[in-house]
Amino acid sequence: MKTGWIPHTFTLGNLTCGFISLIYASHGSKEGSLVAAVLILIAALLDGFDGEVARRLGVSSPIGKELDSLSDCVAFGVAPGFLAYQVYLNGINLNIFDFVIDLGILMAAVFPICAAYRLARFNVQSVPGSFSGLPSPVAGILVALLPLSFQAAGIPRWIFAVIFLVAGFLMVSTVTYAKPQATLLKKVKGLKMVGFVVLSAFFLYHFSFKFLFLFITVYVLSGLVGYVIKAIEEYRY
Question: Mean of the pLDDT values across residues 170-198?
């Protein structure tokens, strides 16, 4: 029996979550924005398993690779960009000679543009063992976690804008990031994987999304710190 449809189901589930996230974010309500953010996280979870499932079933294919990139562009490029505009960037206008320019739209557009380029570059220049540039799912998760983690007090718009733009530009940068999920999925299988997912859900439930936000932030900073250290060493020698 052919099993190629199984990893494709994960991939298309990723795409579906991104699409539904857009619809909920378009409602313009706080509840809709939170649901939209959660859907991006679910998309990231599905994205984390489709490639591994394909490899273990021996059904990896070029069409699966392209489908994964197209789905990622929607779920971690378009959806986070639109969510960011609805929640934080809406209303940032610049008046030039009585002509109003919506800077929020231009800023939000940075994310899908950078994600699309990042994914296209990955398909032709991927390096085993590491990522060149911040992975688009991680960038999308970071944006989604901001309204989830700070929904009560909120964060200043300018702080969000800085984090948002930095995450976008890191996607197309040459900063090197590790692939911890590759090692994790090789060592954690079967019931261990189920236990890992349950434990992760436990931490999220008891420590809210701030726990995951802290983890993602450390990962993003690890690449930047490594890049700076490498630049200093090259300058000295």
Answer: 66
